[in-house]
Structure to design on (389 residues):
């Protein structure tokens, strides 16, 4: 602490005043944004799109700048970045149009058929439940009482989670005129965020003292590494699980295979418990056919989860989160309580970011502080580096 205090008072008085003014301005901006959080969701989506599209834009822009060195193509050096953004936009638009025109109608059709057959499905499930109930009544009364108590607690817990999720989601998504206006503005806003990212970065660094530039840069790299690996990895994992599930469910002869595969892919975005929740609808649909198919479906889902944990996740997502399943389940509950469905998806990555940022500041606050780059390295990979508390 004394080291931080000495560094603070080592800053010239005029610069300290500017820094306090900057912190006050940031606090005011955060307060305003928190008050308007209901309409900021589209801008969060815009930042996410900017983050995901930036590598593609940088790749295309580098090619255009190279071609622009040739005679007759110098105009590419002027509009190269803007052209790269437009191409990236068109590529995303083509993917969305293809998905909406090819996949969405089939998913909607299967969902409608499943809804139309809800009575038959519920009736078949009711028969299986009756059979299970008859077998359950053969158990000793003491075991029945304990089972009923545990099931009651589990039911109350599940209802509470659903209520919290729905309440939080309603608070995050508000269908207002301001929200609609924000969605219309976001594509243009994202365009300028990507186009002028270097200028925005230079402007940001001009506001803060030079001695903090290295720390801010390292923190940006730390957040970018964790966030990028997690988001891109989760999207690829969701797509991979959907495709594998579609193949597996089709081979098992299930109905509504595309709908079930899409559900499995969406739930894959929820760490740890999501894959199991995404497999429940497939088992339920399989139960309407016969117990053998249901058992085969459950075994397929179990094998798929093992393949995911052993082969897919380490290679696609890597160790970007590195949170124990016990911690992930806890932060999922906390995230759903704070922000509903959105919190359920974002809680693990927020927890991982808080952990990594804490590690960085910890290594920078030692009695002999580590340099920014070394602190960044230790925050990313603390193995083999022990510091006494």
């Amino acid at each position: 602490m004394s080291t931080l205090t000495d560094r603070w008072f080592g800053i010239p008085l005029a610069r300290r005043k500017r820094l306090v003014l900057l912190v006050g301005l940031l606090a005011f901006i955060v307060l305003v944004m928190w008050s308007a959080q209901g309409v900021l969701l589209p801008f969060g989506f815009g930042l996410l799109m900017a983050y995901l599209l930036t590598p593609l834009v940088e790749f295309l822009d580098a090619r255009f700048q190279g071609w622009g060195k040739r005679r007759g193509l110098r105009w590419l050096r002027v509009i190269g970045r803007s052209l790269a953004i437009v191409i990236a936009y068109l590529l995303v638009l083509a993917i969305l149009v293809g998905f909406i025109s090819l996949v969405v109608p089939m998913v909607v059709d299967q969902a409608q058929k499943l809804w139309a057959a809800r009575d038959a499905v519920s009736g078949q499930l009711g028969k299986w439940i009756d059979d299970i109930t008859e077998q359950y009544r053969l158990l000793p009364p003491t075991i029945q009482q304990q089972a009923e108590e545990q099931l009651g607690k589990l039911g109350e817990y599940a209802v509470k989670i659903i209520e919290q999720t729905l309440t939080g989601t309603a608070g995050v998504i508000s269908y207002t005129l301001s929200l609609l206006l924000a969605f219309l503005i976001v594509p243009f806003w994202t365009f300028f965020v990507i186009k002028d990212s270097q200028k925005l970065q230079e402007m940001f660094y001009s506001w803060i003292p030079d001695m903090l530039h290295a720390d801010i840069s390292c923190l940006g790299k730390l957040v970018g590494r964790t966030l990028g690996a997690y988001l891109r990895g989760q999207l690829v994992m969701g797509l991979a699980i959907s495709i594998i599930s579609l193949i597996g469910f089709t081979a098992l002869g299930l109905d509504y295979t595309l709908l079930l595969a899409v559900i499995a892919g969406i739930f894959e975005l929820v760490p740890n418990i999501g894959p199991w929740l995404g497999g429940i609808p497939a088992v339920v649909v399989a139960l309407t056919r016969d117990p053998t198919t249901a058992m085969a479906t459950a075994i397929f889902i179990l094998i798929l989860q093992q393949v995911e944990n052993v082969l897919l996740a380490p290679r696609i997502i890597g160790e970007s989160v590195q949170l124990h399943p016990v911690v992930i389940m806890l932060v999922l509950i906390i995230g759903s309580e704070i922000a509903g469905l959105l919190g359920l998806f974002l809680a693990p990555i927020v927890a991982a970011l808080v952990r990594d940022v804490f590690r960085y500041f910890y290594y920078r606050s030692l009695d002999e502080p580590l340099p920014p780059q070394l602190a960044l390295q230790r925050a990313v990979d603390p193995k083999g580096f022990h510091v006494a508390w």
About this structure: The longest helix spans residues 75-116. The mean pLDDT is 77.
